[in-house]
Specification:
mainly alpha, 333 residues, Serine Threonine Protein Phosphatase 5, Tetratricopeptide repeat
Length: 333
């Protein structure tokens, strides 16, 4: 066996064979293996994601399904995802398909409350109750919306309506639980209503005090102007007193027709607040009429003076009617 000469070219060693052109296929295999692992992980992640999503979400029909139940389920899904506008769309479609299904309205009311569209929530809650008087969610969502609108009287009334319905429902346990939940709304609403009424009364007292102050100031200024010979200016100040009372009557009697306001109000227009049980001090008005009459006499307008003095007398008699009635009742006892 001949031994190759040391200076002659030798065959590549095994180590060298692995490092040349043969290294490329081995690297490609590693890259392929890595891509395969990533694909498996991605598929696993997609599978886990699919488990957390309702089956109807993957409906081939983008409308969500051909029946109201499918639309409702899709609406519920988007509500949980806090995509309230989209949920409203699906519940609306479901309502078109099944307009007599109460739960669809209460579900949409829930979405409207989440969107802070409280008036729409109230309408849907009422519609739900009309279709099912035992829809507890409808009462809850309706009370929530009315409370947010600060319509506390209506909130309490809606709560009481629900309580009455559930008290007569079969199955005492469920009925009692519903009544207890709804009662919380009526208690909260009534407390807020009392607070609101107290605040309104306080505001009315402030308004009345301000009005009395305006009248007193106008009388004072009017008398000063009259003393200085400024009759026209005095008339304007005395009319301010009467106009303040007319403003009060306009607020107290919203149903009154809006006609042209005369410069000197009649006794009929001044006594309108009496029918509403409101209290207003009319003594400044009597004094204003008296000074107006004097002003008209001073500028030689006897007809206007006569009309003003008549208005003063009529107002005086009107104010004395309750006292006269009281005296007659005492005399008859």
């Amino acid at each position: 066996m001949s031994v190759p000469d040391r200076d002659s070219p030798a065959s590549p060693a095994r180590g060298e064979q692995s490092s040349g052109a043969g290294a490329q296929p081995r690297g490609g295999a590693a890259s392929s293996s890595s891509s395969s692992a990533a694909a498996v992980a991605s598929a696993k992640e997609a599978k886990n994601e699919a488990k957390s999503v309702p089956e109807e979400y993957f409906s081939s029909d983008d409308s969500g399904g051909s029946d109201a139940e499918s639309q409702k389920q899709r609406g519920n899904f988007f509500y949980k995802k806090k995509r309230y506008a989209k949920a409203v769309g699906y519940f609306t479609t479901a309502i078109r398909m099944a307009p007599d299904t109460s739960v669809l309205y209460s579900n949409r009311a829930m979405c409207f409350n989440a969107k802070e569209e409280f008036q729409k929530a109230v309408l849907d809650a009422e519609a739900a109750v009309q279709r099912d008087e035992w829809n507890q969610k409808a009462y809850f969502q309706g009370c929530k919306a009315l409370f947010a609108l600060r319509q506390f009287d209506k909130c309490a009334a809606f709560s009481l309506q629900g309580q009455a319905a559930f008290r007569k429902k079969d199955g005492a346990d469920r009925g009692e639980a519903a009544v207890k939940t709804l009662k919380e709304w009526s208690v909260k609403a009534e407390a807020q209503l009392k607070k609101q009424l107290a605040e309104t009364a306080e505001m009315q007292e402030d308004i009345d005090a301000a009005r009395s102050s305006v009248k007193a100031k106008a009388l004072e200024v009017g008398k000063a102007k009259y003393a200085k010979g400024d009759v026209v200016g005095a008339v304007q100040e005395f009319e301010k007193v009467l106009l303040e009372t007319m403003k009060f009557n306009k607020q107290a009697n919203e149903s009154s027709s809006s006609g042209t306001t005369p410069s000197t109000p009649s006794v009929a227009s001044l006594s309108g607040a009496e029918s509403h049980g409101e209290v207003i001090d009319m003594k400044p008005d009597l004094e204003a009429y008296k000074w107006l009459g004097k002003c008209f006499m001073r500028v030689q307008k006897p007809k206007e003076a006569l009309d003003t003095f008549k208005a003063q007398l009529n107002l005086q008699l009107k104010l004395e009617e309750p006292n006269e009635k009281c005296r007659n009742e005492i005399a008859m006892t």
